[in-house]
Amino acid sequence: MALKQLRNLEEVAAYKPASNRKFLSAEHDEIMSGLTTDIYFVRTSQLLNRVKKADTPVVAEVFARRQGIFAGTQEVINLFQGRKVELWSLPEGTQFEGKEVVMRIEGPYEEFGIYETVLLGILASSSGWATAANEAKRAAGDKPVLCFGARHVHPAVAPVMERCAIIGGADGASCILGAKLAGMEPAGTVPHAFFLIMGDTVEGATLYNEFMPPDASRVIIADTFNDEAIETLRLAEALGDDLEGVRLDTPSERGGVTPELIKEVKYRLEKSGFNHVKIFVSGGLTPERIAVLTEAGADAFGVGSYISGAKPIDMTMDLKVVDGKPLAKRGRLPGIIENPKLEKVL
């Protein structure tokens, strides 16, 4: 049974989360009811209803505190679907500047005021993830970047994060739901655990190649047991033309993936006639490291914590028109600030 939207403090006090809930993340009905909002918006609703001003027509604008790539529009549209509001927004994937208006909402305050916390949270996190992915992609140029960040965040937001990474420019994502929500199929082969259990990289790769469908990627981890360059040649000799690439994920305890390692692996592949084998790099990558490793010859990248750990881009929502009159808090310009990049989405 769907929860009703919170209207007063009594309803807040009466709500008791189930003691046997499996996960602590908010469910969709809890978000829609206002349970993830800040309490002061419920107080505001209750007070305005008392003096019959809750339905005062207003225009609110959202601006960003710093530049970035915009994401989160679709969830905001879903949040306000069926409500008496009009919504203008930057398209997802659009670059914006600091202090630029990224969204505008018009309608009775009661129709959307309680969702200010939710709205800003969606846009802040989504745009932060999209921006970080964009930075990684720009560093890689025309070379593929996959988002491997799901393991670094709570599973409730992992698909949101990976979808936003794709909006920001990532070429794919490993999280199944995240990729599906972006209209793509998830990317990835098998982890180190598979080879550790198999006991040998080539034996595991041969099994993978035999039983995985033809359209499955054949990029194999080459750093589980032995020297990466030697293991790469073993894989290339065993799989031949079927081997698309090797993944280097050398841990920091062993010095990580260095430009010198990439150059050596590439050199040995070319000398042995395996020019078709690409080098895919993952593990603690940043835009700075991606640029250096690209220069060294890396062909593709898996980026995790740089995207998943991106700082949210602070968003602020201000009332700019109240009951038809330009009005704003001190320090803000009253009235609508035009932005031709905004599109009406609701």
Would you kindly provide a brief summary of this structure?
With 346 residues, the chain is an alpha/beta fold. The protein is 39% helix and 16% strand.
CATH H-level superfamily title of the largest domain? Aldolase class I
When the domains are counted, the total is 2
CATH topology category name of the largest domain: TIM Barrel
For the largest beta sheet, what order do the strands appear in spatially?
13-12-1-5-3-14
Q: Mean pLDDT score, rounded? A: 96
In N-to-C order, the SSE pattern is: HHHEEHEEEHHEHEHHHEHEHEHEHEEE
How would you describe this structure to a colleague?
This protein is an alpha/beta fold and 346 residues long. The protein folds into two domains: 9-127 and 311-344, nicotinate phosphoribosyltransferase (Alpha-Beta Barrel), CATH 3.20.140.10; 129-308, Aldolase class I (TIM Barrel), CATH 3.20.20.70. Helices cover 39% and strands 16% of the residues. It contains 14 helices and 14 strands. A six-stranded antiparallel β-sheet has the order 13-12-1-5-3-14. A six-stranded parallel β-sheet has the order 7-6-11-10-9-8. A two-stranded antiparallel sheet has the order 2-4. Helix 12 (259-271) links the parallel strand 9 and strand 10. Helix 6 packs parallel to helix 13 and helix 9 packs across helix 10 (201-211).
